[in-house]
Amino acid sequence: MHKARVEIKKTLPKVQLVIEVLDARIPYSSENPMLAELRGDKPCLKLLTKSDLADSDLTELWQAYLEQGDDIRAISVTSKQPAQMRRLIEVCGQMLPERKAAGKMITAMIAGIPNVGKSTFINKMAGKTVAKTGNEPAVTKQQQTVRIGEGILALDTPGILWPNVENPLSGYRLAATGAVRDTAMDYADVGYFAAEYVLKHYPTSLIERYALEELPETQADLIDAIGRRRGCLNKRGIVDVDRASRIFLNELRSGMLGPITFETPQMMKEERAEVALAQSAKAEKKKNHKKERRDRFKAKQKSRRNG
Length: 307
Hints:
By secondary structure, the protein is an alpha/beta fold. The protein contains 13 helices and six strands. Strand 1 (17-23), helix 2 and strand 2 form a beta-alpha-beta unit. The protein folds into two domains: 2-156, P-loop containing nucleotide triphosphate hydrolases (Rossmann fold); 186-254, Conserved Hypothetical Protein Ylqf, Chain: A, domain 2 (Orthogonal Bundle). The protein has a six-stranded mixed sheet with strand order 3-2-1-4-6-5, with helices on both faces. It has helices at residues 2-11, 33-39, 56-66, 82-86, 88-95, 97-101, 118-126, 168-177, 187-201, 203-210, 219-229, 241-254, 265-306; strands spanning 17-23, 44-49, 72-76, 106-112, 144-149, 152-156. Helix 9 crosses helix 12 (241-254). Mean pLDDT is 85; it is low at 135-141.
């Protein structure tokens, strides 16, 4: 994290525009708080990628919410529409009209978490394969400089995932959408989280995808039903929860359940308030613990002097 911070601070003075690539399914959870802190007042284009996998109504809601900030534009795109992505070159010029009018090169830093679609975005805008892509986190290993259109130079930075995700629910969302390496997660744990959310918000998608006669009552019942539908049974006829969860998450990520968004601006507002309270309580507990240690030390010193 420190290395990434140093690299971004070193690069920012060279750029006029920051393009932050977000996952349209988790616009808040895929937003790196460090970038907002470091970019200062530089114009920022927030790119909601994989919009074909996200709930279109909620994507529009997120766009309006994100554009409340000064010098911020939010646009949803999908790699399935290359022409749409290449038109974003025009948007970059619109955000820096004086520079475009003067015929000056616009240097943009492209940043985002792993597996959010940064390299795919660059390739589509450039109209050719110039950046490595892959359907797993951490494909881009070092900063790349790419000309992505007339008058625009892009600096593609490696995906940056901060080490401490303060909101635990954001951690689950990152894992469910594939931003975290599968080797670093418990499939059953993340599968249950995703199953609970989809049960509540997209029940019809589950019934249609898995040909369910009725909707399961709990996430455990849903994973069990999926496991039986997909033949994830051991010799005793018991569902292999890990295997069933893998299948569910892979189908969820690929869009086989239809467009799904895991968070809304209102949800994030409520969760931020809960996280703030938890952090305050943690800080107070730490403060009290230090005071208790100091008091014990003083008491011990006093006892030694009296003895």
